Amino acid sequence: MRKFLVLLLVLPFLTFSCEQQETNVVAADKKERPEYAMVIHGGAGTILKANMSEEKDAEYRKALSDALEIGENILKNGGSSIDAVQKTINFMENSPLFNAGKGAVFTNAGINEMDASIMYGKDQNAGAIGGVTNIKNPINAARAVMEKSEHVMLSGKGAEEFAKVQGLEIVDPSYFRTENRLKALERAKAKEMELGLEIQDLNGDYKYGTVGAVALDKDGNLCAGTSTGGMTNKRYNRIGDAPIIGAGTFADNASCGVSSTGHGEFFIRYTVARDIAAMMEYKGVSLEEAGNYIINEKLVEKGGSGGVVALDKDGNISMPFNSEGMYRGYVKPNENVVKIYKNE
Ligand code: ASP
Hints:
Layout: H1 2-32, E1 37-45, H2 54-76, H3 81-94, E2 114-120, E3 126-132, H4 138-148, E4 153-155, H5 156-165, H6 179-195, E5 211-216, E6 222-228, E7 249-251, E8 256-262, H7 264-269, H8 272-283, H9 287-302, E9 306-312, E10 317-318, E11 325-332, E12 335-339
Parallel strand pairs: 3-4
Antiparallel strand pairs: 1-5, 1-11, 2-3, 2-6, 5-6, 7-8, 8-9, 9-10, 11-12
Helix pairs in contact: 2-3, 3-4, 8-9
The protein binds aspartic acid.
Aspartic acid binds next to strand 8.
């Protein structure tokens, strides 16, 4: 009986101290993690300052910061990381500057075939589409696969039919054609003739213009998405890494979100996006270290060029690439960065 009385007396204090501890943990978390964050890329490759006109440079920087602003407005107002990723990518898909949506590169057969994927870190749900030719915004179709189907990946005609049933905007394939990309196909074909072998050229002059975004919302949920036209002069309904979960896109609230750009075959074979998250998950390695190792050591050793943008659950950002440049940028509250070349 006495013991019971003592317990009754100390119980309120015990509960109080537990509550105190919990509040402290939450406070520490909040302090560490920015309210929101987003990182984007518009492709990696042979992007040299010496080859870029001032106007083009400014055009790309403006497009990247406009894209970031779209995502930031959503996140700032409490919107979800899924919405931020989708709307930001929509903007880049609609811009002819990038190899996604309008401005997608051409296949050997002279058409535009697009791939895209999206993954949500909270439940690791994912959606992807490969080889579509008439969906205005491929990332919207990837999101619809994630949210409105029991599948993860749909391709070709089936994916197009699904998008139509879902009420997504369908356009005439000619919508995606741009002069610059057509010229890149011609250059790739000329080079093929010269070399006498089949090449899947990297946009004619070794630029990968895929777009991607990773966002962390106020609820602490990560989302990653990637959208692309693939590689110039691709044949045989080739599908790259962009729609492959674990290669071009990955997100897990336990570690990080990643979106890739580069020579897709290498990103698929070396499961680039997943490897970065796995290093964090299983080995406790930091995002910076994991990204650098996979992109600047492992991939270099294997001969794969490109890069990733990545964002971890605590809001840390990493943008490693092993090519000359990568269109990239990020936002956090009171921070806004856009870069193209190695250091600027
Ligand atoms: N990764 C893309 C692909 O191989 C190309 C790119 O990043 O631009 O399809």
